[in-house]
Amino acid sequence: MASQSLRPPLRASNVNVFSRRIKSNIVSGLALLATIIVIAPLIAILFYLLKQGITSLNWNFFTKIPVPAGESGGGMENAIVGSGVVLALASLIGIPLGIGAGIYLAEYAGSTRMGNLVRFTADVLNGVPSIVMGIAIYALIVLPQKHFSALAGGVVLGIMMVPTVTRTTEEMLRMVPHAIREAALGLGVPAWRSVLTITVRTASAGIVTGCMLAFARVAGETAPLLFTAFGNAFQSTSLNEPIAALPLQIFVYAVSPYDEWHRLAWAGALVLIVLIMASVALVRYVTSRGMLKGAS
Amino acid sequence: MGVGIKISDLNAWYGTNHSLQEIQLDIPANHATALIGPSGCGKSTFLRCLNRMHETNPIARVTGKVLINEVDIYAESSPVEIRRRVGMVFQRPNPFPTMSIYDNVASGLKLNGFRSRRVLDEVVERSLRQSALWDEVKDDLKKKSGASLSGGQQQRLCIARALAVDPEVMLMDEPASALDPISTAKIEDLIFELKSQYTIVIVTHNMQQAARVAENTGFFLMGKLVEFDSTHKIFTNPRDKRTEDYITGRFG
Amino acid sequence: MTQPAKIFVSESSTPPPDAKQPVKPSAVRTFLRGRGNSAIADGIFKALVFLCALSIFGIVILIAWELISRSHLTLAKFGLGFFFRSAWDPVNNDFGAFPFIYGTLVSSFLALLISVPFALGVAIFLTEMCPKWLRAPLSFLTELLAAIPSVVYGLWAIFVLIPLLRDYVNPKLMFTLGWTGFFTGPNAGYSMLAAGVVLAIMILPIISSLTREVMTSVPMVQREGVLALGATRWEMIRIGVLRNARIGIVGAIILGLGRALGETMAVTMVIGNRPEIVKSFLAPGYTMASVLANEFSEATGDMYLSALIEIGLALFLVTIVVNACARMLVWAVTRGAPARVA
Lengths: 296, 252, 342
What we know:
The complex is a heterotrimer.
Chain A: H1 8-56, H2 59-63, H3 77-109, H4 113-127, H5 130-145, H6 150-174, H7 178-186, H8 191-202, H9 204-219, H10 246-254, H11 259-288
Helix pairs in contact in A: 1-11, 3-4, 3-6, 3-9, 3-10, 4-6, 5-6, 6-9, 7-8, 9-11, 10-11
Chain B: E1 5-14, E2 17-27, E3 32-36, H1 43-49, E4 60-68, E5 71-72, H2 79-85, E6 86-89, H3 101-110, H4 117-130, H5 134-137, H6 151-164, E7 169-173, H7 181-194, E8 199-203, H8 207-213, E9 216-221, E10 224-230, H9 231-236, H10 241-247
Parallel strand pairs in B: 3-8, 3-9, 6-7, 7-8
Antiparallel strand pairs in B: 1-2, 1-4, 4-5, 9-10
Helix pairs in contact in B: 3-4, 3-6, 4-6, 6-7
Chain C: H1 27-34, H2 39-70, H3 72-78, E1 88-89, E2 94-95, H4 98-129, H5 132-147, H6 150-177, H7 192-216, H8 220-228, H9 233-262, H10 265-270, H11 288-295, H12 302-334
Antiparallel strand pairs in C: 1-2
Helix pairs in contact in C: 2-12, 3-12, 4-7, 4-9, 5-7, 7-9, 8-9, 9-12, 11-12
């Protein structure tokens, strides 16, 4: 078309079009290349972790406590139990606070200045390095008590859960159609009841998976536990004593010189990753489909 | 039993938009009253002022008096109490998606703290019969979710839900506009049945529908109530030129 | 609305003249008329969720307060000079944070240098070029990688990345780029470069998914407008998308920087942990976060502890500023629809 034109400016731009096309294709190629360069090793990392983990995992891992360096056959039973205790406490703190704040943002604050300030602070808090959180809780709980404790570990992880739970709860509540809120209000249901039994319940699948995601994220946190939960070579469930945790144990074993401990570190990493993969997949599944099926 | 509604000097705003201006109107008890008018004329806003749903929007504002059964709903009551007396059916069916059919109908009672199982069973059956849905759903009341029904059934479920709290007034905001003709006919039959027991106010953009179900009709235009009279009068011999233009289709 | 609510009594009114049956309030109606307006319960509920929201401010203030009050010893003794001194001598209570700040900055910028081009490439590919069926699995993968714990990256880096760098990459870098001075000296593996590479891998998913979000929020009309003028695909992306999204993309990169600055475990496991300032990236270094991880639980003296907490305070303030800037830039583009928590 353009080649039939007799006008010089268009003819001149013809050459241009050619070079522009080439440039466009080169850039497209580069973007594709970048994606491949990034994705391939990332998949490799995942597979390497899975491979190392699966070959290292056995029943002892879940049922035995660590044996002294050099001996073989130990497991991470104490770390798994410890992580369980710390995470349970963290959830007890982080989930109610986060869900409450999420309800406030979605149902009461809207886009008011206060609401935006809370959102902003939550996002900023989410970016505060976990090790800094650990120090603050160390100063708050460990220093006055003069000993490390599971309590301190649970508090720091609980605080870290708050921003994530808040933002996902808000997002999920906002997905509940306005018509459903109106239906409840139209029946003369008090606001608090309509929020809890209608809106929150309608969004519950999403909120639960959001909590799982926050849970999985702090489940892998190591840095804030270094000087709160501290670690423990033996089994303990007391909130008032130092306690072992899976990520802590992985760290200690990874930087140790013993092959047997390296093996256990890989196994621990696999357990963590499976937990995280499951929750990420669940969140995607719930947010992409099915959550509000049928709600027009 | 239904009760009458007296509206005087009613004004409503959305932000700075004066969407209802100086409405005066007496709605008779135990009749169906239709509100017609072009889109954006204020008829839905007016309806939502009658159970204080209008104020759920943070930028909305209302002045004036609405007397339901001699009680000024703005001065002497709270939104929650008013809405238990004045049921509302919305344009799109909005059953609670996480609840069974039974729980949907019982929700207005259960969520307000009503506990008696025996009475609940009775009320659910009565309401579903009143809304002509009972025969279609009686076998899976607690098995199926409200959202699994067809659109027309969902709307009748919403009517049953509103009936279950035994209101004195029923407000219907274009209840059939999202439905197919057969479902629409069923809803209209229902309104006809219900008006012996409730005062019904129905917003509609469908003039035939107004003519079929309502004794009285009000015509809204640009936030004002232009004319209110018996439906027969409005459709055969309107007083106002603008009403005539609208019902004869010469409008906009 | 403030005066006590009056309860309706339907029996007291005269029935309408055309009523077909006498007014007999049903059990349901009587019950519901007796329910109050639940203003108190509503007020309590609202106050509760508001308190939950306030707790977020509370947490930030609490962290700041603990850090400031526990670091007053070094704050008083060294003042701002703390951040420019290179001494780190717990025995003689002589502390300076400069080597750690240097290590943090160098490793983070190294990470940005490596990951930004790739992150942008991936984002452009995923939003503008990727076939639909591939988009979901790829973005799932990126999300997954963002969620893998730091300690697991560190584990992988120790056993895979460091041998790889030491045996294959570093010798080549020393040979070709040794003259710059950045790639010289003993090749131990544990190094600033290793930390930069691990960090790059870790922040890449964050930068690319935020960039993608910003790019998707550019309205389709912008793209079509440019295409309608006869632009090629690259020109459409450059003029129609990148130009509109650039502020948000900068925000995404800064957010990645914020993550890199505070990243602890993976870096601690690979950087070599030596508080020295060396030009070569192949030499070990130390970061603010890793000195905290390594020395905090062993810090005995009050002064030592105070010095470490002051480093934590600095890290806290820097990441807050960085994150606040980044969030505002991202919000400016996605227009109030706040970005998902990365």
